[in-house]
């Protein structure tokens, strides 16, 4: 007998699935194959869903795990090898995949885990002004932890270069009280001040707007949240870069889909391939960008 449940739900203009397993509940939108929320049974949500989220076609929801692909962030800040792949005049921030409908390939139990797989068929030559053929899959495995894998396979006969991210929004008690473990001593790009390269001194806490690309990131990072007595753990593979973002007061006020004080309850720690860590896929080659999200009691 199946020990999971899949219900369809409509949120504004978006088709969604609420998937409940013995371990956790997930809400996933068809658009962007975007995980909108993740709540282990009997625990607080690990991912953050903005209470002013807008569920509109073509617009990424401020929540969960948006998939940024085939470029990350401001297109112009990408290396020439990534920019050369796209021929459009307007390049939306964070690429083309997060605002399009993906296809749900299936939900099945594999041992203790639930395996949910999505495909973006348009990535095989039909994305506007991005004329490359890549099989793009998002595999979500729900067990004691949440495993998210973004798999790209070059089906064409020329190399393809990508930047990308699993732009995860985590739920925190109060961002001013948390810190991130694992970035001490790392070089980072300070995007708020001319994209200068700096070095992280000591531990990373939050007292103002933060938008940084950490380079040479280790596989394990964690968000330590003493008030909620938990550590959110991230184990990344296929990535050497991590983006850490909190909009703080003024930026949050400018965002129509975030409450003025919403910045206090979220922190983005993004598993990425950006800056000097872009992915070059030779014909036939594959790359998997993967993060495993879990929690530990403090
Ligand atoms: O990943 C950090 C970042 O690129 C920030 O610069 C900020 O703009 C954020 O993502 C959100 O971007 P979005 O396009 O979703 O509003």
Structure, explained:
The strands form 4 sheets. The chain has a 9-stranded antiparallel beta sheet with strand order 6-7-8-9-23-19-18-13-16, with no helix packed on it. Strands 5, 11, 12, 14, 15, 17, 20 and 21 form an 8-stranded antiparallel beta sheet that branches. It has a 4-stranded antiparallel beta sheet with strand order 1-2-3-4, with no helix packed on it. The protein has helices at residues 80-83, 248-254; strands at residues 5-11, 14-20, 24-29, 34-40, 67-68, 103-110, 113-119, 134-142, 146-154, 160-162, 164-166, 169-171, 179-181, 187-190, 196-199, 204-205, 210-214, 220-225, 230-237, 241-246, 266-273, 279-281, 286-297. The longest helix is centred in the last third of the chain and has 7 residues, at 248-254. Strand 2 (14-20) and strand 3 form a beta hairpin. It has a single domain, classed as Beta-galactosidase, Chain A, domain 5 (Distorted Sandwich), CATH 2.70.98. The radius of gyration is 18 Å and the shape is globular. It contains 2 helices and 23 strands. By secondary structure, the chain is mainly beta. The structure holds 6-O-phosphono-beta-D-tagatofuranose. 6-O-phosphono-beta-D-tagatofuranose is lined by residues 60, 73, 93-94, 167, 211, 243, 245, 268, 270.
